Amino acid sequence: MTANAPGTLTILGLGPGAAADLTRRAWDALATAPTVILRTKEHPCVPELPGVERYTSCDDVYESTGDFALIYHTIVARVLEAARAGDVVYAVPGDPLVGESTVKQLIAACDAEGIPCMLMPGVSFIEPTLHALRLDAVDGLQIYDALELSMAHHPPVNPDYPALLAQVYSRQAASDLKLTLMNQYPDEFDVALVHAAGTGAAQVEWVKLYEIDRSEHLEHLSSLYLPALGGMSSFERFQETIAHLRAPEGCPWDRKQTHLSLRKYLLEETYEVLDALDREDLPALVEELGDLLLQIVLHTQIAIDDGEFRMTDILSTVNAKMIRRHPHVWGDVSVDNADEVVTNWDAIKLREKAGKGDAASREASLLDSVPKAMPALMQAYEYTAKAAKPGFDWPRIEDVIAKVREEFDEVLTAGSDAHRAEELGDLLFVIVNWARWHKVDPELALRAANAKFARRFQHVEARVRASGQPMESFTLDALDAFWDEAKGLGL
Q1: pTM of full prediction above 0.90
Q2: I need a labelling partner for 231 at 20 to 30 A (CA). Which of 93, 152, 431, 461 fits?
Q3: Which pLDDT tens digit goes with each residue over 237-248?
Q4: What phi and psi, each to the nearest 5 degrees, are found at residue 346?
């Protein structure tokens, strides 16, 4: 070996239990290597290893920071530095290729630098944990590193299948983990902490999810088992339901639908979601959001059947868009308030359109992002809001009020039905502008007014029904009295 040549990096697994369980090959590698680096000394077999007094560990890295990405990066850098100078054994708990982020990074780095890298397998935490739980891994078991998962805001776990999470080694790690899991699982969900699997001290501790960081037994050989949530609760299961409906043995109605035939249902379900929001009816909102999601997944399955696109295309596109349009979250842009976020969003959208290269994109308008099929009241609000951003707006609210009066007078003096219809449209448009100046969403304001009218008119109808007479037999003054009665009742 030349002076500048790197050594061989041997990565071996210590297994979950005693040193006696190591293979002879692994024992010899530990005994003869000039340098041995342990990911952690917190392992039951470490005191029995050959020449353990000359080993170093990376426990100091874990103690220096709570940033797991930085921890892994630091460990990888330490092992690589040693391997550049000579032969090194890097020993990890369990099996090197099960739940070991540092190993994956080391293999890639060795390939890039031309450092010989050899793997020696060990028994992972999975087999003894499954034994302790009496489980079969073939039943869809998912395996995750709890440290990596705890850095997410939503767990990447399919809740229709069980999951096993390694390295729940401390109360802090368990606390971080449960916060991520609670974004998908109920606080009271029954889960199992499995401690020291594969050793004589193995223990299964069933607790509620919110209690996992209260366990007295958490240590470096602790894992968390998540049973299947059940109830057909995964997005993938819903896709299977819709794909089945569209299959040859599925539903004739669903098989008949096209993108165009579903348009009215998409609108109907959207308005039903809005109705549930207006009523602040959370159970109804759950149901109506499900119906709206049905439309999205059904459109997607139609596209899959016709060879147009897949759900993965939709998800990757919208994920990329969200990250691209939030440079203040995933980039180095600074914002002081929500208004600046919206300004940046609109500017990024315009750049995206211009970058597409077609003639329409080169003539991009601020109004392009407002859907042509949007309800007219909402569309008017969006048009005026977009135009106002670069300064195309009245300087004072008094000017808006004067314009309302002007348009009102033009309605009164219109000389024909067609002219009157045009002027009424102008009046409605400027009233929407007036609402915007008061920071009132005209669509929501009108929906509230509609709901108020419905409540009061239904009271009038109830009073009429109670009389046993048809509404046509009442004078307008009598009906107005019922209306005023409804107002007095706070309807």
Answers
A1: no
A2: 152
A3: 999 999 999 999
A4: -65, -40
